[in-house]
Amino acid sequence: MEFSVVQTGYDQQQVDRCLEDLGERLARLAVRTDAAARTNPELARLQAEITRLGELLTVRPVSADRSGSAARQVLLTAEREAAEILAQARADLAAAREEARQVRDQVYAEAVQARRDFEAALHVRRIRAERADEILRDVAVPGEQRLAADRMAADRMATPGDALAAPAS
Fold first, then answer.
1. Cα(146)–Cα(151) distance, integer angstroms
2. 43 near 33, Cβ under 8 Å?
3. pLDDT higher for 147 or 3?
4. For the segment 67-103, what is each residue's pLDDT rounded down to a tens digit?
5. Which residue ranges make up each domain of the chain?
6. Which of 4, 31, 134, 159 could form a disulfide with 11 if both were Cys (CB 3.0 to 4.6 A apart)?
7. Residue 46's closest CA among 55, 34, 57, 58?
């Protein structure tokens, strides 16, 4: 005999049906053994045992108060354990949130510092580029000076020849 386990113990309807079945079987056995008991003393003892077992079936072994009390105790224990688990989960969550906040703050500070470093490096680069441009403007390149002198000389030579070809005024 196996019974389904429910919230407060075994399924009461299944237990009741089983007890009824056992009672009917015992009654059938009692009828069969009555005839044999009249002739055999051992059978009379067995019949008495059957009668006693039948009486046990009509009386509930566990009262509703006791089973309810046990169920309440189990429920209270479960609630207490659930509260402990919930408290631990909340503590773990709070710790994880604090750790995440610290990591976020650290990453933000590093990002701000990286941006400042980048902006400072960019500023230094711009200043150097401007100085290089100023230096290059002020310095005459020897090759450019020679090129300019050659152009001037070529311009001078072209001018007198042009003057000869032009009529005198």
1. 9
2. yes
3. 147
4. 567 778 888 888 888 888 888 989 888 888 999 999 9
5. 1-61
6. 4
7. 34
